[in-house]
Amino acid sequence: MNGSLRNVGPAVAWVESPLQLLCVVEAHHAGLLGSTTRVVPRAGLPALRLTRRELKRLGLPEGLEFDEPAGRMPRPGRTWVVGDAFSGRVQLALVTSIPGRTVLVDDGLATIRLLELVTARRPLLRARGKASLGRTVLATAAGIRLRSRNLTVFTALPVPEDLAQAVRDTGAELVGHDFAWLRSKPADRPPDERTVVLGTSLVRNGLIHRDRYLHWLERIEEPVAYYPHRREDPRDLDRVRRISGLTVYDAGIPAEMTLRDLRPGQRVLSLPSTAVTSLRVLLSARGVSVDTVDVPDDWWTASAGPSLRSHLQLFAHETPRKVAP
């Protein structure tokens, strides 16, 4: 694959989250993007700045370079790499730019919803909220263009086999990975606590009740290392810090990077999260259990409808067969 991409110019990646940034590095390392990749992070996002700094400290793959953060998305290259194809700016670029090769990297469980919509030939709209007529028209046109743009999906998620086949039937390429680049890098010392809890964005997004979540944390009867979600409300974190026996480790970078060297016998607990799936990829061979906590019915708010709840818990306990790297 590298040889066919050698002379088509640098790949251009637009990243808006730490996970997207990490996955672009993995895609370049895997030879999926050609010999040169220019990564443009979205400006104004502290978590991206911290992740970028840590990735540079680890030593970037040859041929991959970070541009300075920008407020405007760069013009797509012949190979264009994005994570959030639900973004209006990304969809506008899909519709108005010259068709080329598009590589989609992981941006959480939204990746699975996107694949479902692409294969069903439906508008590329997020699961929550109501879209205007104009937004629906753009999302429909973007879906049509994405299906015709020589699409490659690069994912660590265990895509269910029926969905994986449906993606391939559209002509897209589906490439799995297991964070090979990250696993090759030395890791910092893990926390001493046996139990690690990943923070959640579900409270701030209004999907679960705050007090029920905090009460659950208070009832864990052992020392806890708590790694906040990047979108947790600072006021909630203040309350979390006051819980006896709980220590907050506010690294500000993806859990995949901070927890990849946990020791056998340690465990990770989390509400539904993409990080649960990727940490299983990284930690299963190390004897570290990574478990999703079932969300009781009375935790959910009225904003979390049945279909959204089901989607959020898609990979909670079962791991569908992963697409081959």
Determine the oligomeric state from the structure: single chain
Order of helices and strands: HEHEHEEHEHHEHEHEHEHEHEHEH
Helical stretch tally = 13
Overall average pLDDT: 89
Description:
With 325 residues, this protein is α/β, with parallel strands linked by helices. It contains 13 helices and 12 strands. A 7-stranded parallel β-sheet has the order 3-2-1-4-5-6-7, with helices on both faces. Helix 4 (88-96) crosses helix 6 (133-147) and helix 5 packs across helix 7.
What is the topology?
Elements: H1 2-5, E1 11-15, H2 18-29, E2 37-41, H3 46-58, E3 64-66, E4 79-82, H4 88-96, E5 101-105, H5 110-120, H6 133-147, E6 151-155, H7 161-169, E7 173-176, H8 180-183, E8 195-198, H9 210-218, E9 224-227, H10 234-241, E10 246-248, H11 255-258, E11 267-270, H12 274-283, E12 289-292, H13 306-312
Parallel strand pairs: 1-2, 1-4, 2-3, 4-5, 5-6, 6-7, 8-9, 8-11, 9-10, 11-12
Helix pairs in contact: 4-6, 5-7
Short description:
With 325 residues, this protein is of the alpha/beta class.
Structural features:
325 residues; alpha/beta; 7-stranded parallel sheet; 5-stranded parallel sheet; 13 helices; 35% helix; globular; disordered N terminus; disordered C terminus
